[in-house]
Amino acid sequence: MKDILLQKQNEVAQVAEKIKNSAAVVAFKYQGLTVESFMNLRRTMRASGCEVAVVKNNISRRAAKECGYELDDVFVGPIALVFSASDVVAPAKVLFQSAEENTCVQVVKGIVDGDIFTFDQLKTLSQLPSYETLLTQLAAGMLGTLSQLSIGLNMLVEKGQNA
């Protein structure tokens, strides 16, 4: 009996540690997914730097409480968790793309940068471009401005030489 209790406490501690070390954690329903579809979802998540875990609801609920989150309403029925160590957008983006292809995937709630996000907030988050895309857009915008400045300065220099 003590072994089982100790094992469950260890499981709670492991899940709580994953929650603490994640930039984003998203809970989703997967009931009705085939094994092949679920494995494809795992592969896609892994490629995006995320980890999918199916954890008993009681363990997940206790781990969330240990981290200071009240998510009792989330852990009802078959629920899987997606953990992302660095990218806050990737879990929501991949899950919502999967939900478009397969109605069995239903995003429930999540924790993003320490805040609890509802379905609607996660949907909005999923529509944002990735961090790398945002950096590229910023660099392109800055480069365009610099090139226009250099063209303008070059025109002034040429005008001064012709005068």
The CATH superfamily of the largest domain turns out to be: Ribosomal protein L10, N-terminal RNA-binding domain
Would you give the CATH topology of the largest domain? Alpha-Beta Plaits
Structural class, by secondary structure, is alpha+beta
CATH architecture of the largest domain: 2-Layer Sandwich
Rounded mean pLDDT is 88
Strands side by side in the biggest sheet: 2-3-1-4-5
The total count of helices amounts to: 6
Distance between the termini: 95 Å
Counting DSSP E segments of at least 2 residues, the number of strands comes to 5
Q: Strand percentage, roughly?
A: 15-25%
> Low-confidence spans: pLDDT under 50, at least 5 residues?
none
Helical coverage, percent range:
55-70%
CA-based shape = elongated
Name of the CATH class of the largest domain: Alpha Beta
Q: Calculate Rg over CA atoms.
A: 23 Å
Q: Specify the biggest β-sheet.
A: 5 strands, antiparallel
SSE series: HEHEHEHEEHH
In total, the number of domains comes to 2
Describe this entry's structure for a reader:
- The chain is α+β, with helices and mostly antiparallel strands.
- The protein has 2 domains: 127 residues, Ribosomal protein L10, N-terminal RNA-binding domain (Alpha-Beta Plaits); 34 residues.
- It has a 5-stranded antiparallel beta sheet.
- Strand 4 and strand 5 form a beta hairpin.
